[in-house]
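Can't attach files on this board, so I'm pasting raw text. These are the components:
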Amino acid sequence: MNGLDPESSLNAEQVAAVRAPDGPVLVIAAAGTGKTRTLTWRVAWLVERGIDPSGILLLTFTNRAAREMMDRARTLVGDPVGGVWGGTFHHVANRILRRHARAIGFDNDFTILDEDDTLSLLRACISELGLREKHFPKADVLRSLFSLARNRATPLSDEIHRRFRETPVDAEGVFRVFTAFTDRKRQINAMDFDDLLIQTLRLFDEHPAALASYQERFLHVLVDEYQDTNPIQARLVDALAARHRNLFVVGDDFQSIYSWRGADFRNFLSFPDRYPGTAVFKLETNYRSLPGILQVANACIAGNPEQFQKILRAIRQSTERPIRAELRDGDQQAKYVIEQISRSIRDGIPKKEIAILYRSHYHAMELQLELTRRGIPFSITSGIRFFEQAHIKDACALLRLVQNPGDEPAFLRLLSLLPRVGEKTALRIWASLGRRFAVRLPEARNAVDRALPGPAKADWKTMISAFDELEPNRLDQQPGEIVYRFVSAFYTAYAEETFENAERRLEDLEELINFLGRFSSISDFLSDMALMSHVEEESSGGVRKADSGEGVLLSTIHQSKGLEWSVVIVLWLAEGLFPSQRTLESQDEVAEERRLFYVATTRARDRLILCAPRCRRTRDQGMAFYAPSRFLQEIPTGLVQIDRPVLTMN
DNA sequence: GTTTCGGTTCTTTTT
DNA sequence: GAACCGAAAC
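---
Top answer:
Structure tokens for the assembled complex are below.
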């Protein structure tokens, strides 16, 4: 606890940032320069200096980052760190709203809607307004449209015009859906992810006393990955830090890759203007990568407009250069990658120190096939997350209804599990119940039974028998017991009839039941669950996906951010694939793709291999030819070593 | 009128 | 692998 000594473990750049005086601070931290380390030490240093930990707020983008930093800070200064408010923007907003939602027209036990729920709610709104026509935008389109408008804090009409530049669109209808959607969420006492942030801001606007209490409380506000904040998040930060103005933000504009969800790295660039007197620190000493890798990274990013100039300085020494592999097609690429994996393993590099990165999930298809064929173990960060899988959501729907009897999406989901019940029937019954269903009440259960079509009645009784011997007033305290009974009475049979991989899914549900044992109330579990991203392998004792393994890792570049490996292989560096076709028309979007390339290259410590296949099979048995990616062309000759493999393997 | 089934298309992503 | 669409089945 005593004698925390930054000088002993940090370099001069980092020490300066950690010891920065009070007031606004901007730390520009290039890749691999110890950004997390610096932030962690800053927290520890504040605590060490005697700042009350509960007066410190640490905002991050992912749960992983929050946990990592809190753990590390704890090892530096011990348990008091536990008092720090640390978490994602959404977590912190949720925590605030659980205390104040009543003030803005919600109950404090509101439900959090995930993407699926939001979609089905939107579909319902579209149907009810009679807009479900051929040329009316689909729920999916509207969801991202609304979300972008809200996160960018731009008027919906602007976003509509941006999205439908050439296509005629019923803008008025879109507005009506938006209004219906907003009303609906309030009626059913539910918020989507965007609401968590926006309603918190609204709370602050309408109830200055609530805002003042948090402003008073947070003596220091620290923000990680500031380049990825969207305008709403930036406003939230500004509001919370307004009283004490001790705002410490860290980021790297080169690594801003989330503009498509409303992030604007100009928030980062303009920070010193918005906060006059900002102390600026730069971290440029890179400990991670060999110099050859950093030269490529520096060269490729240099051409982007609008950025803080900075250069990665290597500490490590070596003359080894990254490899550019010129390949014929995806199949040859797959074989080449496997050769490189074998070679690395022969060189003594463990499998889990090797990562294959790509722009889009489907870019790894051939490779997945080939790895499977040869029995090489790999794990893959896919789009589907534990809590987004259908069977997990089915079980959670039951818990949601217990917590919030007005939870329409949960009710519809549950009823749709019954035979001969689809969207229409479920909605009709929901309306006949007065848009509320209290699981506890036998009358309500009977009312559903009466309204169901014949074949569904028996299954309904079985499903609801999960509650039979449970004390109605204590339901909220036994989530594990409820799900256990639901699965044994009803879901096991349902799963076996429905899913070809029923066994695996039932195992997942067992894990979920174990996991629920940790929670003493449904509401605690549901907030945690809704805000949890993919359950990470390391999360000790948590729910884990079956395939978390020891093999090489296949991942999108987006998901690789913040991580590092000894060997990194990047696939499909071809014009039209990476950068992807849909970004080619816009300067800004190509600049973002280039930052993505920068992120990919700077993940590598020792060996970087850039693959450039020339053609790809199209759907109709044809061949499409691709020019090498502009990101490769931009690298000065001599910085990479060209490899034209003649493959002897079959 | 609804539900279910089979074929087709596409597949940055976090909360 | 899942979301969507159109057609068949209930």
